[in-house]
Amino acid sequence: MALPLLCSLHTPPPSLPSSFPSSSSLHLLLKFSPPNSFKFTLPALRPYSNHHRLSLSSLTASASLSVVDSPKSSHIQNEKNLLLEVKGLITVIFESKQQILKGVNLIIYKGEVHAIMGKNGSGKSTLAKVLVGHPDYEVTRGSVVFKGENLVEMEPEERSLAGLFMSFQSPFAILGVNNIDFLNMAYNAQRRKLGLPKLGPIEV
User: InterPro entries annotated for this entry (predicted)?
Assistant: First the structure.
């Protein structure tokens, strides 16, 4: 069954919550628009037939992750456009030390859309949580590079400000709080990271 394309992009929160939604999606914030705008832009999406699929089989003792490559795009797949690179990622549950992810390899370039697919319990959410720095998991081997930085050594808030975070697939409304308030908080958090002064609601 074909998956729907993700057409919306959420701004990163100032920090990640201590718990994560069980049904969630991983968003890669690729590019901010000019400082006076809350809009974000993504490269044009290619036809779905060109998308990558990361197939996750059941992560039992003998299971592994596999990647089905999409057609090569030489103008996209070069080191300059490398966005996320996961090599030999092995992860355990922090308390029990039970191994969950066993040698995951994944490369994503700017402009690509990847679909992570698998049965319930196959490790889709676990991989996402590990990438955003969930405290319940520990990386014991392998490397993760995001936008040229060592993701494993970054705190969850740093990853969020860099553009990698988790959010609800269907955001819920909070009575009494305007969307502009959330956007203002997220936008100013990004400006702080870039060393820029805070902007008030009227200025943005």
Answer: ABC_transporter-like_ATP-bd, FeS-cluster_ATPase_SufC, P-loop_NTPase
